[in-house]
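Reference record:
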Amino acid sequence: MSELFARTFRFRVTLSPSPPVPPAPGSRPAPAAGPPLGNGAFQECSGLDLEMDIGEYVEGGRNNGVIQRAGRAKVARIVLRRGMFHPAGGTVDTALWRWFQDVVDGVRPLRRYDGTVEVLDEDREAVATWTFARGLPVKVIGPQLNARTGEVAVEELQIAHEGLRLEVS
């Protein structure tokens, strides 16, 4: 029975530059040129959430219930966590921090990234893919440093975005 479930420990995250102009509603964005951000090796990904606002309409004379109306969809922030990488004898990869710092420093145009989060099967083939559009860094958290534990230094990136879609292979 457990072979019927997708395993959550195999996933891949890709952050690609967003096109300079947002796509029209209902259309797919055109791919933008440029290298992906970072190496995509994250140990945790959360925030693949959509929530619908619901408007309640109280109709006069209807005492047995309230009419529910669909409202706007709300998306959660994508949260990515990874160990701080550095090659042997090299320096720590600071691409995520540079992206955040460029936004804080007012570097224009703002660099936005579209993202894909793919759940992979045993053969490293995508079985489900979430895509988000026009991401901006909201928060970067450095590692919690504690000399007594010997844990891996983990950094976290939170990304606000303009839409989330699920595509199943």
